[in-house]
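Help! Submission page says 'invalid entity' but I think these are all valid:
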Amino acid sequence: MTARAKNNRTLTIMEGESQILLPLITQPAEIVNGFDFNDKLINADLLDVLNLIPDSVADLIIIDPPYNLTKDFNGKTFRARSNDEYKEYLKSWFGRVCGKLKPSGSLYLCGDWRSSSALQDIMSEELTILNRITWQREKGRGAAANWKNGMEDIWFGVKDPKNYFFNVEAVKQRRRVLAPYRVKGNPKDWEETPSGNFRMTYPSNFWDDISIPFWSMPENTDHPTQKPEKLFAKLVLASSKEGDLVFDPFCGSGTSAVVAKKLHRRYLGVEINKEYCLWAAKRLLNAATDAFIQGYDGHVFWERNTLSAQKQCAVSSASNSSNSDHKKTSFTSTSLFDL
Ligand SMILES: C[S@@+](CC[C@H](N)C(=O)[O-])C[C@H]1O[C@@H](n2cnc3c(N)ncnc32)[C@H](O)[C@@H]1O
């Protein structure tokens, strides 16, 4: 194992842990008639297990596939290809994955600018596209003769635009009030707190409040394209209810499953790489005792750089003994970075 810095909290598998974690991972041979797909992590090639998973099981599908980039996923390299070839690749599984979605279900499909036109084309053949979320993220190499990529797309589609679930109240964002307007001396639509003035705002399709996982965050693994829990928490809270099933056909280090579990949903994930499955299984085990999602606390999505306000809010709500699912673990797992 490579030596890590003192505050590096990247999740690793310790000697002997695999024996505990492997029974938590399903192998395709175990999927027999009457198999219970709830809360399962399947270590398999998606194409080999799609026909074993029943249709119309998922309330929400989150897909974070290999983008059209050359990327090494732990020894298995996905190679960049022409747009047409990438579309063919998407077609080889996308329609069948949509078959797993309930008629009232929602689906999110992640990509970067290079993959995005193919994603939109393929998605519009199966679903009604309702939006494209832009996630502004700070990662990626600078380029001498191009603009550094600082964003990703998340396409949002549904089977039936007249019948789908969307809980906007669950994903409102707490923002600092810049112009505190008052009526008869009282705050209009905002709240005065010891740590500043805040307003709950409707979320737009531009997300600039989420950082990629850093080595100092307990959710971090060595997966090369791990998504932040806060990002998927927004999708899960907006587009599913407690008890619903969240399906992720390319679940990597298990972010969607972990978030589903922390937010009291059921999960079903498929991942081809065994080591990634072990990381996902360990994260799921940890989630049983620590349901904290960094950047989402007290049922509120906080802006970046509001850690001290979050702490004050947690302290005052604790002294008011109000109820927060996350109070037990709040700030015990906060990273060095102020999110
Ligand atoms: C973009 S990553 C997903 C990362 C994930 N969202 C996370 O937060 O860790 C895509 C994943 O798909 C997996 N994968 C690629 N081809 C696959 C296949 N045919 N079946 C199952 N998994 C596959 C890769 O190993 C990789 O972990």
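Support: the input was valid. A stray whitespace character was the problem, and the output above is from the cleaned input. Residues 45-47, 64-66, 73, 223, 225-227, 250-253, 255, 270-273, 276 surround S-adenosylmethionine (CB under 6 Å).
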